[in-house]
C-alpha cells in the first residue's frame, strides 16, 4: 500500500441537515440515531479504527452541539463546517487539520453488514483515488435516484461516471459509488464544489479505481433503511 495505513486520515462528515431522516434524528443529528445500541457515528468511528486508521476528523456543525458533546474525550478531532455546503466543502474543512494526506471519507449514514469496507479500501489502496462501489439490486435500488452511477469500468479502473440525474430512478444492476472512498491529491487537483463532477473529471485520466464491495449495505439515511437496519438486529 502506497504510504501505508499510517499515512491515511479518516474524515467522517456529520454536518449535514439530514432532511431525509428528520423524523428519526436525535437532538437534530441523524448521526446519533442508534442501531443495535450504537449510534451510526460511533459505528463509523469504530469501523475506521478497526481498519488501522488512528487519525480521525469528524466534521460537525456549530448547529449540532450534541455531536461535540458526544465525542468529548473520544480521541477524535472535531472541526466545524459553518454552513451545509456539501461533501467537498466538508472535507476541505478537515484538510485544515490533516493537510494534503490521503483521506478515507466515511459517510455515517451508510452501514455495511458482514465486512469492514474501510479495511478493504485501506488494503487495496495503491496511491490512486479509490471508491467503494456496489452493484445495485432490490430493495435498495428501488429507493435510489440516479447519482453516482459508474458508466464504464475496465477491470478495477473507473473510466466513466454519470452526471447527477436526481429526478430519474437508478438503473437496477448498475454499479454505484456508495459511502466510502479514499481521496488523494489527484482529486483535489480537479475538485471544485461537487464530488461527482470532480470524479467525472478524474475518471478519464486513469487515476480512479473501484473497490467492489459485495457485503450487504444499508442506507440508514432513508427512513426505510433505518427500519430495515433495526429489523436485522431485532430478529
If you had to describe this structure to a student in words, what would you say it looks like?
By secondary structure, the protein is α/β, with parallel strands linked by helices. The protein is built from seven helices and 15 strands. Strands 1, 4, 5, 6, 8, 10, 11, 13 and 14 form a nine-stranded mixed β-sheet that branches. The protein has a two-stranded antiparallel ribbon with strand order 2-3. Strands 7-15 form a two-stranded antiparallel ribbon. The model has no long low-confidence stretch (mean pLDDT 88).
Which stretches are low in confidence, meaning pLDDT under 50 for 5 or more residues running?
A: none
Could you tell me the mean pLDDT?
88
Instruction: Please trace the helix and strand order, writing H or E for each element.
Output: EEEHEHEHEEHEEEEEEHHEEH
Category from helices, strands and their pairing: alpha/beta
Cα distance spanning the termini: 39 Å
User: How many helices in DSSP terms?
Assistant: 7
Query: What oligomeric state is this?
Result: single chain
Which percent range describes the beta-strand content?
25-35%
Shape: globular
> What is the number of strand segments?
15
What is the radius of gyration computed over CA atoms, rounded to a whole number of angstroms? 17 Å
Percent of residues in helices comes to 25-40%
The major pleated sheet works out as: 9 strands, mixed
Amino acid at each position: 500500500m502506497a504510504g501505508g495505513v499510517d499515512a491515511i486520515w479518516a474524515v467522517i462528515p456529520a454536518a449535514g441537515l439530514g432532511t431525509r431522516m428528520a423524523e428519526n434524528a436525535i437532538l437534530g443529528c441523524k448521526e446519533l440515531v442508534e442501531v443495535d445500541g450504537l449510534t451510526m457515528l460511533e459505528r463509523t468511528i469504530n469501523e475506521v479504527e478497526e481498519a488501522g486508521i488512528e487519525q480521525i476528523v469528524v466534521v460537525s456543525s456549530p448547529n449540532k452541539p450534541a455531536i461535540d458533546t458526544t465525542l468529548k474525550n473520544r480521541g477524535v478531532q472535531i472541526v466545524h463546517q459553518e454552513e451545509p455546503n456539501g461533501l467537498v466543502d466538508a472535507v476541505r474543512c478537515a484538510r485544515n487539520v490533516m493537510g494534503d494526506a490521503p483521506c478515507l471519507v466515511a459517510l455515517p449514514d451508510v452501514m455495511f453488514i458482514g465486512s469492514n469496507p474501510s479495511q478493504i479500501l485501506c488494503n487495496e489502496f495503491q496511491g490512486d483515488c479509490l471508491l467503494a462501489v456496489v452493484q445495485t439490486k432490490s430493495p435498495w435500488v428501488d429507493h435510489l435516484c440516479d447519482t453516482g452511477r459508474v458508466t464504464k469500468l475496465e477491470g478495477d479502473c473507473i473510466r466513466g461516471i454519470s452526471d447527477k440525474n436526481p429526478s430519474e430512478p437508478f438503473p437496477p444492476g448498475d454499479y454505484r459509488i456508495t459511502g466510502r472512498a479514499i481521496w488523494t491529491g489527484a482529486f483535489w487537483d480537479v475538485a471544485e464544489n461537487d464530488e461527482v463532477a470532480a470524479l467525472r473529471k478524474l475518471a478519464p485520466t486513469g487515476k480512479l479505481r473501484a473497490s467492489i464491495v459485495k457485503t450487504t449495505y444499508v442506507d440508514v439515511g432513508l427512513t426505510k433503511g433505518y427500519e430495515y437496519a433495526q429489523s436485522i438486529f431485532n430478529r
